[in-house]
Amino acid sequence: MSTLSAAACFLRQTARPLELRAYECLFEAASPDGFVAALTTFRREDGGFGGALEPDARTPDSQPLFVDFALKSLYQVGARATELGAAACAFLRSVSEPSGALPYLLPGALEHPRAQHWQTLQPPSLELTFGIAALLHWLEVEDAWLDSATESCWSALGEPPDGAHALIGVMDFLEHAPQRPERGARLAHVRALLPGARWLAVELPFEGYALTPLDLAPRPDALARACFDDATIEAHLDALAAQQQADGGWPLSWEPPGEAARAEWRGKWTLDALVVLDAYGRL
After folding, report:
1. pLDDT tens digits, 193-249
2. How far apart are CA 232 and CA 234, in angstroms?
3. Are the C-beta atoms of 268 and 19 separated by less than 8 Å?
4. What angle do CA 121, 65, 187 make, to 5 degrees?
5. Count of CB atoms situated within 10 Å of the CB of 128
6. In the 8-state DSSP scheme, what is residue 161?
7. Which of 22, 61, 51 is closest to 268 using CA atoms?
8. Contact (Cβ atoms closer than 8 angstroms) between residue 99 and residue 126
9. What residues contact 213, with CB distance under 8 A and at least 6 apart?
10. CA-CA-CA-CA torsion for 272, 274, 278, 283, nearest 10 degrees?
11. Percent of the chain with pLDDT over 70
């Protein structure tokens, strides 16, 4: 059985409807309407997204982290559901600092099961705002909160974050935010930071949890692709393909907060692996 066929069987047997609908859009030419409908089931009255959309936080309530997950999922499928992004701005405005800085999780999330890395709250920052603002621009959302947050993000690019997770959002921002004369210099500065970013494993093999160059450059035309030589990318593609397990899915490198979260994450992780391998011509 091929990599794709085995993964498809795994997704049909175990994945959430959200990831299964995404797979059907990306690999079976299905309409994105089914995916958008599945994502909308996580939408809350305040415009945010809840229902443990990001499986490591089992809270039913809207969270900035879940908005980020929703927007990334829309982008992955290519579903420009602008109305979802516009509604999310109302929620984001209600929980952000005046600068647009966002917490990953709100205090109520601590009342529910969650993974170890979410045991304590992190203070609001622009780390999450970069990626959210980027994809709201990709959705062509027009909103005063987004305009203000975008200004803050451009100002903060003089001293960008040094963690790989946040730098993914920074690169998305540089790709999708309205262009400015300083973009070229900011992009060059951030690209210089990427290979040494915290939580990034460039050398193989590595143990435990880390992001890889493929997380920063999930497709050949990604802005971060130029930061890594061909040999590095090919080695990580080999390693990613080799991680597929006998059941057709990909494993996790961290401990989720329970078996339901593990199953949900494996569906998402498997979908993400297929998307990257396909983008680089490995399927």
Report:
1. 999 999 999 999 998 899 999 999 999 999 999 999 999 999 999 999 999 999 999
2. 6
3. yes
4. 105
5. 24
6. -
7. 22
8. yes
9. 200, 202, 224, 227, 228, 232, 233, 236
10. 170
11. 100
Q: 88 near 70, Cβ under 8 Å?
A: yes
What letter does residue 95 receive in the DSSP assignment?
A: H
Report helix, strand or coil for 125.
strand
**Distances, alpha carbon 160 to alpha carbons 29, 46, 224, in Å:** 38, 30, 15
**pTM of the predicted model, to two decimals?**
0.97
Distance of CA 68 to the CA centre of its chain: 7
Per-residue CA distances from 73 to 32, 36, 208 (Å): 11, 10, 25
- Rounded to whole angstroms, the Cα distance separating 51 from 38 reads 12
For residues 214 and 240, the answer to whether their CB atoms sit within 8 Å is: yes
Neighbours of 30 (CB within 10 A): 16
Question: Rounded to whole angstroms, how far apart are CA atoms 14 and 254?
Answer: 19
Q: Locate 160 and state its tokens.
A: 């960008």
Rounded to whole angstroms, how far apart are CA atoms 177 and 71? 14
Domain ranges of the chain: 42-112+123-197
Q: What is the pLDDT of residue 74?
A: 98
CB atoms within 10 A of CB 116: 10
The total number of residues shown for the chain amounts to 283
Specify the residue for token string 């929980």: 95
**Both tokens of residue 270?**
């498997």
- Give strand ranges (E) for the chain: none
Average pLDDT across the chain, whole number: 96
